[in-house]
């Protein structure tokens, strides 16, 4: 088809080809540069150094906790946005997606003002429960959740909207309450969208840097996740930074492939 | 078991006002053109939409009324959708067991119940299939089993045969006839074909423009239709006019003479085969003669069905031999006549 189109209409115009090539160079060369410059022979040592392992472990723990929390609160929110009509729904959706466009550093400042020990909510958390979030591992999870949750909500809301709401009707006529319908019909039917939303959410949490470092700083073992660690290594041990960056690229590519598979083929019911 | 549905659903574009009482003894067939309010009626009874006024009672329980809307899951109303809406992620057995499970029946008991319904509807061999692996007729049978397994007091079927091919539709019709008769609750079937109405229903309720315009036994409704839609379904010519001792004055002009000396506002109907066609004005005894143009020609069984645009719209069935002799094409002028003795008239 494509080649046929070329034969019929002639070559693509240079005015379009040149900017496109520039775009590809910009997007593809940097990750390739990391692969080219990677210290392949000492790669295992860099990836298994105690500091790297600590950061890796912290990252895995916090991002998985973040993804779990996002699923727990995000799927219900997505369902409400998709299936319940109420005044201010559009406004709520806009507010929920704000962190998508907010600079992460600003997100970190906002989190400090909300959950810091003198913050709007943090004050009461401190007084009532003795909980302080900033500069703790729990704070890392909060920061990651703040930036990653919108990805999950948007993806799940889309999945709920795309699946036929008349299955909900059918379930109701069979005696299923809205809760039973949600668990046994709505969620299973939207599962592909929920899974890709969760993967997307995890990927975003994995890369989270700005809000985390603003809200929690960078302390080894408690708040120094992979992005912070790479940034730190960049100033002291370039090879280690490159090796860890390469690992992140591999993970990202794996996520991309996984999501493509889902988006292209879906799950056949 | 009874259903008392006396309600109105008002929407900006249309209003549906229904007064319908049904018992378990009779299978009710709901018939009418698209947009007449058939689906609205079913959805209101099931609780899938809110009524604007009136009330609905199922087996003496008020399920909808002023300031009251019982959600569908508590009404015990089964619904069979035109496109079956089987849950695609569940097997046939899980689909059928869904209702009992939703009602809190233990898994093993729900499975036993599902198995018994699958056996009754000859679905046992399909138990482990997914809806995507079923034919249209099988899927609709599963949908019926699923609805019945949730033990409804009212069963609503929205054009259950519409999406099926002719053979599957006939099979389902027979199955519905048997199972709906045996069903202990009230059953209402929305139909779009005369065949469905005749085979499945004991009582027909004709809806037109949001209102019930006729109820009666299928044979009676078919013999004396009161809407163009039903007349067209059963293949009758139908006109409405004012009669004076058997001579019916038609609103569009002209008249029609019947043998019965009825007076007042009447319906007059006659079969397509009672209409004779001529190339020139016929001479002799027929008193009902009109001139018009041929609109279309189509095979109809052994005959040819001719649609004619005259003072009144007519359908006529003629033999292929007559067609050859008349040499008709759409747009040709034509004369049509009906004997007075072939016209049946009844009070409107």
Q: Structural class from helices and strands of chain B?
A: alpha+beta
How do the SSEs of chain B run, as a string of H and E? EEEHEEEEHHHEHEHEEHHEEEEEEEEHEE
Q: How are the strands of the largest sheet of chain B arranged? A: 7-8-9-3-10-11
From the N-terminal CA to the C-terminal CA of chain B, the straight-line distance is 33 Å
Segments of chain A where pLDDT lies below 50 for 5+ residues? none
Indicate the low-confidence ranges of chain B by residue numbers: none
Radius of gyration of chain A over alpha carbons?
Answer: 22 Å
Number of domains of chain A: 1
Helix content of chain A: over 70%
The greatest inter-chain interface is formed by: A-B, 21 and 27 residues
Work out the oligomeric state of the chains in this entry.
Answer: heterodimer
Instruction: Indicate the structural class of chain A.
Output: mainly alpha
Topology of helices and strands:
The complex is a heterodimer of chains A (269) and B (348).
Chain A: H1 2-9, H2 14-37, H3 43-48, H4 50-83, H5 89-101, H6 104-115, H7 122-129, H8 137-162, H9 166-173, H10 178-207, H11 210-216, H12 226-236, H13 238-265
Helix pairs in contact in A: 2-13, 4-8, 4-10, 5-8, 6-8, 6-11, 8-10, 8-11, 9-10, 10-13, 12-13
Chain B: E1 2-10, E2 15-23, E3 27-31, H1 38-46, E4 53-58, E5 61-65, E6 68-69, E7 77-80, H2 92-102, H3 107-120, H4 136-149, E8 154-158, H5 166-182, E9 186-191, H6 194-200, E10 203-208, E11 211-216, H7 218-223, H8 228-234, E12 237-244, E13 247-249, E14 255-257, E15 264-270, E16 275-278, E17 288-300, E18 303-309, E19 313-318, H9 320-326, E20 333-338, E21 344-347
Parallel strand pairs in B: 3-9, 3-10, 7-8, 8-9
Antiparallel strand pairs in B: 1-2, 1-4, 4-5, 5-6, 10-11, 12-13, 12-15, 13-14, 15-21, 16-20, 17-18, 17-20, 18-19
Helix pairs in contact in B: 2-3, 2-4, 3-4, 4-5
């Amino acid at each position: 088809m494509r080649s046929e189109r070329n034969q019929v209409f002639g070559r693509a115009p240079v005015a379009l080809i040149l900017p496109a090539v520039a775009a590809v160079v910009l997007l593809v060369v940097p990750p390739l540069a990391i692969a080219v410059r990677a210290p392949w022979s000492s790669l295992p040592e860099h990836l298994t150094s105690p500091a790297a392992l600590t950061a890796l472990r912290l990252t895995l723990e916090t991002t998985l906790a973040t993804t779990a929390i996002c699923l727990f609160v995000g799927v219900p929110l997505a369902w409400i946005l998709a299936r319940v009509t109420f005044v201010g729904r559009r406004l709520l959706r806009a507010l929920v997606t704000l962190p998508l466009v907010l600079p992460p550093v600003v997100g970190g400042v906002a989190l400090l003002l909300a959950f810091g020990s003198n913050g709007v909510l943090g004050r009461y958390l401190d007084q009532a429960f003795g909980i302080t979030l900033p500069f703790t591992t729990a704070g890392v999870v909060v920061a990651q959740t703040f930036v990653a949750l919108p990805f999950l909500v948007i993806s799940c809301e889309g999945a709920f909207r795309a699946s036929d709401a008349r299955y909900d009707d059918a379930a109701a006529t069979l005696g299923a309450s809205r809760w039973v319908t949600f668990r046994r019909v709505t969620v299973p039917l939207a599962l592909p969208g929920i899974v890709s939303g969760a993967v997307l959410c995890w990927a975003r949490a994995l890369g989270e840097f700005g809000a985390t470092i603003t809200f929690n700083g960078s302390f080894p073992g408690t708040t120094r996740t992979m992005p912070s660690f790479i940034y730190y290594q960049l100033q002291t041990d370039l090879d280690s930074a490159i090796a860890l960056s390469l690992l992140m690229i591999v993970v990202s590519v794996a996520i991309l492939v996984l999501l493509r598979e889902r988006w292209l083929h879906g799950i056949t019911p | 078991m009874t259903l008392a549905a006396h309600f109105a659903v008002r929407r900006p574009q249309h209003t549906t006002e229904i007064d319908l009482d049904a018992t378990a003894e009779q299978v009710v067939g709901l018939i009418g053109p698209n947009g007449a309010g058939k689906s609205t009626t079913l959805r209101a009874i099931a609780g899938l939409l809110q009524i604007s006024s009136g009330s609905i009672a199922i087996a003496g329980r008020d399920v909808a009324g002023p300031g009251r809307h019982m959600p569908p899951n508590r009404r015990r109303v089964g619904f069979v959708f035109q496109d079956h809406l089987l849950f695609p992620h569940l097997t046939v057995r899980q689909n059928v067991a869904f209702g009992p499970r939703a009602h809190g029946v233990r898994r093993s008991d729900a499975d036993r119940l599902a198995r018994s319904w699958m056996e009754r509807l000859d679905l046992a061999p399909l138990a482990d299939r997914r809806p995507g692996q079923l034919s249209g007729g099988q899927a609709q049978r599963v949908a019926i089993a699923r609805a019945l397994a949730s033990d409804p007091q009212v069963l609503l079927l929205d054009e259950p045969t519409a999406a099926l091919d002719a053979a599957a539709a006939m099979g389902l019709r027979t199955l519905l006839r048997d199972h709906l008769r045996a069903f202990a609750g009230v059953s209402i079937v929305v139909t779009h074909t005369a065949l469905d109405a005749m085979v499945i229903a004991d009582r027909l309720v004709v809806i037109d423009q949001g209102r019930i315009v006729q109820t009666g036994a299928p044979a009676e409704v078919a013999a004396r239709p009161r809407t163009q839609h039903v007349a067209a379904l059963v293949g009758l010519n139908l006109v409405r006019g004012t009669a004076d001792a058997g001579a019916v004055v038609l609103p569009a002009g002209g008249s029609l003479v019947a043998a019965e000396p009825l007076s007042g506002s009447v319906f007059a109907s006659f079969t397509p085969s009672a209409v004779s066609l001529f190339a020139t004005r016929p001479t002799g005894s027929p008193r009902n003669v009109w001139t018009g143009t041929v609109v279309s020609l189509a095979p109809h069984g052994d005959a040819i069905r001719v649609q004619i645009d005259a003072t009144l719209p007519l359908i006529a069935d003629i033999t292929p031999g007559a067609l050859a002799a008349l040499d008709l094409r759409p747009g040709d002028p034509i004369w049509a006549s009906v004997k007075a003795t072939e016209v049946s008239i009844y009070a409107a």
